[in-house]
Structure formats: C-alpha cells, structure tokens
From TrEMBL:
<feature type="domain" description="Integrase DNA-binding">
    <location>
        <begin position="28"/>
        <end position="92"/>
    </location>
</feature>
<dbReference type="Pfam" id="PF13356">
    <property type="entry name" value="Arm-DNA-bind_3"/>
</dbReference>
<protein>
    <submittedName>
        <fullName>Prophage CPS-53 integrase</fullName>
    </submittedName>
</protein>
<comment type="similarity">
    <text>Belongs to the 'phage' integrase family.</text>
</comment>
<keyword id="KW-0229">DNA integration</keyword>
<dbReference type="InterPro" id="IPR038488">
    <property type="entry name" value="Integrase_DNA-bd_sf"/>
</dbReference>
<dbReference type="InterPro" id="IPR050808">
    <property type="entry name" value="Phage_Integrase"/>
</dbReference>
<dbReference type="GO" id="GO:0015074">
    <property type="term" value="P:DNA integration"/>
</dbReference>
<dbReference type="InterPro" id="IPR025166">
    <property type="entry name" value="Integrase_DNA_bind_dom"/>
</dbReference>
Length: 101
C-alpha cells in the first residue's frame, strides 16, 4: 500500500485519521427502516450516536442504543418497529445524557 493511501486511511505512523478525509456517518432513513429484510443472521442498521435497528432472522425489528455508563458498555431497548418510529426513538435518545448523570 502506498504511503499516501496509508495516510488517508489513518495507518501512517500511528497517527489518527486526517480530518480532511473523514466521512460523516449517514443517518437512517424511514425507507431503509421500512425495507429492512431478514437475513440468515441478525444484523444492525446504525443511525449514529449508538442508536441502531436490530433486524432479527424472524423479521422483527428492535430499536437499541449502545452507550457507556461508569466505564461499562450498556444496551438500552426502545421498542419494536413500527410501534416505535424512527422519529420517536431519536427524541428518546436525546434524553439519555440527562438520565445517566
């Protein structure tokens, strides 16, 4: 791999990635959530900030949030889609920092 490629990918000399080349995370869209199909294994669709939609092999879709509290990784369940919409889950996520203080 060339030196330029290593620099762009953040593997040059142990330095962090160059901020000019970082790609911001893409947020989920309602269409992506609606069209999420089950696969052989459960998988996750990330919305950023620890929020993701877990799609089970049965086709069930669960909203989850991954966060840290007291140095330990925790998971919070918000509910099942479509009972809990993408908008509602994003609003609920915004309250988490206030609850974990």
């Amino acid at each position: 791999m060339s030196t330029r490629i290593k620099y762009i990918l953040g593997h040059y000399g142990g330095h962090k990635r160059c901020p000019h080349f970082e790609v911001p995370p893409m947020k989920l869209t309602a269409r992506q959530v609606d069209t999420a199909k089950p696969k052989e294994k459960p998988y996750k669709l990330s919305d950023g900030g620890g929020l993701y939609l877990e799609v089970a092999t049965s086709g069930s879709r669960y909203w989850r949030l991954k966060y840290r509290y007291a140095g330990k990784e925790k998971r919070l369940a918000f509910g099942v889609y479509p009972e809990v919409s993408l908008g509602k889950v994003r609003i609920s996520r915004s309250f988490l920092p206030k609850l974990t203080r």
